[in-house]
Amino acid sequence: MSPRALQIDDLYRIPALSEPALSPDGAWVAYVVTTADRDSDGYRSQIWRVGTTGDATPQPWTDGPHDGAPRWSPDGATLAFVAAADNDVAQLFVKPADGGARRQVTSLAGGAGDPEWSPDGTRVAVVSRVRVDDGDQRDDNAPVVLDRLGYKYDGAGLIGDMRMHLFVVDVESGETVQVTSGDFSVANHRWSPDGSSIAYSAPATADSDVTGTSAVFVVASSGGEPRRITPAEATLAAPTWWPDGTELLVAGRERLEAGHTRLFVVPESGGTPKPVAVLDRNVMLGAPAYPGARPVVLDDGTILFAARDRGCTHVFGAAGDGPPDKRVGGDDRAVSGLSVSAGTMAYVVADPTSCGEIAVNDIAGSNERVLTSHCQNALPDVELPTPRACTFTAPDGTEVHGWVLRGNDSSEPTPLLLDIHGGPHNAWSPIFDGVHLYHHELVARGWTVLILNPRASDGYGEEFYRGTLGAWGLADEHDFLVAVDALVEEGSVDPTQVVVTGNSYGGFMTCWLSARHPTRWAAAIPGGVVSNLVSLAGTSDLGRLMARVELAGQPWAEADRYAEGSPISYVDGVTAPTLVIQGERDDRCPVGQAEEWFTALRLRKVPAELVRYPGGSHLFIVNGRPSHRADWCRRVVDWAARHTGG
User: Fold this and answer.
1) What is the CATH number of the domain that holds 212?
2) What is the DSSP string of 334-402?
3) CA of residue 65 relative to chain centroid, distance
4) Res. 178: pLDDT tops 60
């Protein structure tokens, strides 16, 4: 079989692996495989399992269509998971580990998510959506009265009076007890070692919608008044109990500010968090487009956690007061998910040839065994380009790191696509991500693609991470320009055929660069746009926090600086034909941002198109309708090619 380049239509073949869960004896890994489904224009997910010896064949363990969150019972005899039929909410199910039919355990109106077994294996804690006023029959068309911020969230839309609360379910009888209630949502719950309590994270105080603070609470597993155990002024979450139940490991910061997520230990009775596992890298807890994992505390007090270094996420370990050491990682590998049992850890590892496979390793980080080959099996005839690492030096001496994708037989100057990541505190890595499929399509057409980690990118230390605070665009614009210039000077790139694109913060920078440096670009393709910092601060679901943390002040107090930092202030400089990509239900960078930019371009008669994706959230390019994701990739390729003659 002759190798071929990856194509955009391969989106429907690429498997995404997630949520590895080791059995208590370390013999099996259960995990989730998700694939795009063309017929439903959605996704199918199943739970698979594979033995950890390295010579076992992975097998599907559930039938789907929407199964996830596998959790082994403490004795390893049962697997709990959540499952949903099409158009239904997910519920809790259990299935014997030695085979047999699934059994539904919950029938909660708000569904069930994030199951966690009690230490004795008789109960499971889940979260479910409930109305604060218990008015489950309220007319969905009735007016929604709001007296607090945080009333919407990207991907969920208008939250109104719906909150996520904690429930405990008896696995045998199905009897369900609601453990928490009130005008707040809980997350990240974990049982205490003796099963008497559950720790979780939630807003720290009644005015956390304004302050942005979060805290860790402990509540009796039978219900009752929760106790806040971390300071009200902190932003702490993701609790993990110490094996003896006297302390908890938590993640976050001691106050609301831009910077790395760090690890702390706090007494179960409450008190001042003590920093542990100190490392000048960002602790990654895991989220869509932000690979990572919940930290784990071993019986001997060793802490295992995920952190990002030079764009790639690794597993680090910290024992006692010693410095953390890298247990799993590599210059071109990224790890997500982490499950530990019986001296073994399981995770998903991705590299330039794979979007992620299940691997196991011992606690010390030796004897790695990759157990699956889903990606290779799905794309047996595809040959992926090898990213070339490169560094560039900005005018102020700052080193900027990135990768170039280019056809192996390219010797002449080619068109260039500069793709800018979001965040601004995300980061590119050299792994095959399965999202930006237009990279491969363009490389196959003879293009060069540059993915760059400018200042503010994650994985290069906290000083670098904070490099754009209060100065989006102004601080980092030359990081991109010097990189493009260097590729032109080495003869790799045709300076008349350079296209800039990016989503979220990348959309902001695409607008910024096309306005401030108009002669550089043959075309521009901003997505998830930020064009006006003033309107962003008041309409984004996180605008109030971005203003305080990233932009260093509210717009009414910093009017001149907000104007100086908004691309719309410079839009009269844009000459490049511009394709604006926008999710219709984007609450992070609301659609009005794209409308402002497109309107200004059209009034100035700059060639422009605005493409709006119905129902698309901010992350529709990652987890939206597959047809929308494929269409986005094709439009990027077509626009870039059309305006460069490529």
Assistant:
1) 2.120.10.30
2) EEEEEEEETTEEEEEEEETTEEEEEEEEETTS-S-EE---HHHHHSTTB-PPPPEEEEEE-TTS-EEEE
3) 23
4) yes
Judge if pTM exceeds 0.70: yes
pLDDT exceeding 90 applies to what percent of the chain? Answer: 87
Query: Residue 477: inside a domain, yes or no?
Result: yes
183-202 pLDDT tens trace: 999 999 999 999 999 999 99
Q: What is the pLDDT of residues 455-510, one digit of tens each?
A: 999 999 999 999 999 999 999 999 999 999 999 999 999 999 999 999 999 999 99
Contact call for residues 449 and 531 (beta carbons, < 8 A): no
Tell me: cis bond preceding 413? Omega within 30 of 0 counts: no
Domain closes at, from 249, 276, 303: 276
Helix (H, G, I), strand (E, B) or coil at 485: helix
Half-sphere exposure of 30 (CA within 13 A, CB side): 24
Q: To 10 degrees, what angle do helices 477-489 and 505-516 make?
A: 70
The reply to whether 308 falls in a domain is no
Instruction: Tally Cβ neighbours within 10 Å of residue 345.
Output: 28
Answer whether residue 1 shows pLDDT above 70.
no
Number of domains in the chain: 3
| In-domain check, residue 288 | no
Residue 48 sits in which domain range? 14-96+317-382
Q: How far apart are CA 290 and CA 307, in angstroms?
A: 11
